[in-house]
Amino acid sequence: xxxxxxxxxxxxxxxxGILAIASGPVGVGKVGILLFxxxxxxxxxxxxxxxxxxxxxxxxxxxxxxFTIFIIxxxxxxxxLGMAVENVRLLWLLAFALAAFLLGELAAxxxxxxxxxxxxxxxxxxxxxxxxxxxxxxxxxxxxxxMLLTLVSEFQRRWKKSGDKDIKKHMVFTSPFILLIxxxxxxxxxSPKPYNWTVVKxxxxxxxxxxxxxxxxxxxxxxxxxxxxxxxxxxxGDITGEIKSNEETVLSVAGIPNETDNLKLRGKNxxxxxxxxxxxxxASASPDSMFDTIGIIASLEDYDDSVxxxxxxxxxxxxxxxxxxxxxxxPEKVAIRKSNLPVYSFDVINSGSDLLWPKSKSYRTAxxxxxxxxxxxxxxxxxxxxxxxxxSEETYNRVLxxxxxxxxxxxxxxxKFIDHQQYIHDxxxxxxxxxxxxxxxxxxxxxxxxxxxxxxxxxxxxxxxxEYTEMPGKIxxxxxxxxxxxDYFILQSRKGYCSYFATAFTLLARAEGMxxxxxxGYNVNNGDKSSLYVSSNMAHAWCEVYFDGAGWVSFDPxxxxxxxxxxxxxxxxxxxxxxxxxxxxxxxxxxMTIPELPxxxxxxxxxxxxxxxxxxxxxGLAVIALFFLIFKISVAIRLNKMDYDRKFVVLCKQILIxxxxxxxxxxxxxxxxEYKVRLSKDYEEDxxxxxxxxxxxxxxxxxxxxxxxxxxxxxxxxxxxxLEDLKKRSIIRFIRYHxxx
Length: 741
Description:
Elements: H1 2-26, H2 33-51, H3 54-74, H4 78-86, H5 92-109, H6 111-123, H7 125-130, H8 137-158, H9 167-187, H10 198-219, E1 237-238, E2 249-254, E3 262-270, E4 272-273, E5 277-279, H11 288-302, E6 311-320, E7 325-327, E8 333-335, E9 349-351, E10 354-361, E11 366-374, H12 379-387, H13 393-402, H14 414-428, H15 436-445, H16 452-463, E12 467-468, H17 482-493, E13 495-496, H18 498-511, E14 516-525, E15 531-535, E16 539-547, E17 551-555, H19 610-641, H20 644-661, H21 672-679, H22 689-699, H23 705-729, H24 731-740
Parallel strand pairs: 12-13
Antiparallel strand pairs: 1-5, 2-6, 2-15, 3-14, 4-5, 6-11, 7-10, 8-11, 9-10, 14-16, 16-17
Helix pairs in contact: 1-2, 1-5, 1-8, 1-9, 2-5, 3-19, 5-6, 6-8, 8-9, 11-13, 16-18, 17-18, 20-23, 22-23, 23-24
């Protein structure tokens, strides 16, 4: 180990000097902390390989083989080839490392060469100063360090001292003081201008970003379920007795319109309620979101009314932070699959009414979406909810063709749209039977209502008078159906958090014959901000009710929540053509014109699949195993070819190593006989006969060849017996023996 550090002093010093003086001319670039550490790391490989034992060298070869195969696998990516070409100049680091290793070894072990290279390096500062050649402080520090090493080495050689006279040890032990001097040189200001501490700032920034990434990745759960009772998005629908605050930042959202007071990002939809929890048994694979978006545009085309500004296209960007989930969070009316909209460069799975990634996504996953912003808070839109109808086939097909470019796609035919609409009525419109007491209560509540929209508004107004609390207490265990939950919540408790209110609203809507579903996601109160971070505390539940004309529409009955999107409706046909006028124009003026999305950010890193790591690792291990096997075979062959006297010495060394691994090493001042006596307490006489033969070999070198042959045969048996004992006691030490012998 002393030899390793001694050589590193010279090799690393010269490597630093070469990097500082040559990086600019060859185009490597400005020497920063990362480039410097990279040069030291590459250079250290040469020193490690030189000083490593056979096993260490085999491991080095295996790692190099694995890395080479990994690079070959990555070379099939154009992005990697581009990066490789762009950074090919970094191969100079390998040349610098080799040169530094050769020069450093000569300086460390050839005294004259060390003096000459030190003097030449110091002399180079003279023309640099005269010609005012701009060099970094790293080069000056490397020159001074090399000079100090040479001076200290010469001083050690001339210092007459007793005890350990190994110069290498003295150099290693004095090196911290030498390095301290160099560090002082590096940090001292060298310009009249204020020093901006660029290196320190860069280190701080790198460390800060690294710690932040590690902290975020370590805090991300392996699934989207939060611990019971903790606020946050979940794919479960159980209603707990109380919930606790959770400040984790899970998403970032950019592109929120000014007209939106509360942005709702839908994640998970549920279909059936048991009295204690929601479950999702919707197994439909129909593109619910796309049908919903296509349907409302076509229905507005058929809507017999004056021109109204009910919907418009918007765009949004969402990025995962402390999130690991297979769910895609989207606004209500999203165009996310199979259209001429530039909305996605990823695969999407329709599972029931949910949108899913093919596999879970996590930190820094970002996606752009195009969606319809719905003027939900405008009274004219409420009229559309009442009077809007299922679009005609002709209008639907025209919208499908001109708005989405899907006229030939069999997945979005009008028949499938109608079938899906009927499926929603059948599946999400299942009858909810109310108790006689609650039925009488709701009949009184609905007095004077002329349509379903007014009934929903009455339900929403009623529930907003209840108490919002995060500690409502658990739902009584004897409640096991929808009717009993409604009686408990509306007629008795009248308090809870969002899950209680959304559940009650959904069930009451179904009781009036309206298809409705329970939704979990995030409710973002953005104020006047267009971009913000979403925390777990913004997780929310609400209800969506289905209308044949408008599709799914959100209702939020939770007290303190609500408020959607509002802008003033206009009726100016001359300036704003009616929705549904899809004539091709070079400069479209229709508010329904689809916006262009920002360019999708390409993944900066190459996606590393499991096999891309497994194959190089397996290949590296195979190379190590092959070299190790060849080494063991060659050692066995050399041992068999030895004379018996030399063979006996090798076997005795191996036996002593095994005994040491067994915890019975021979003491430094212990004689062979004393060692034998100590071992006899734990081992039988037959296993200790090698000590007698060893004494005979050491003190009676004129022994006959036959005696050594018999001694070798006994030593073989003793070694193998002890190895079996070692294998039983510690398989790790057994492997360690074979790796080094």
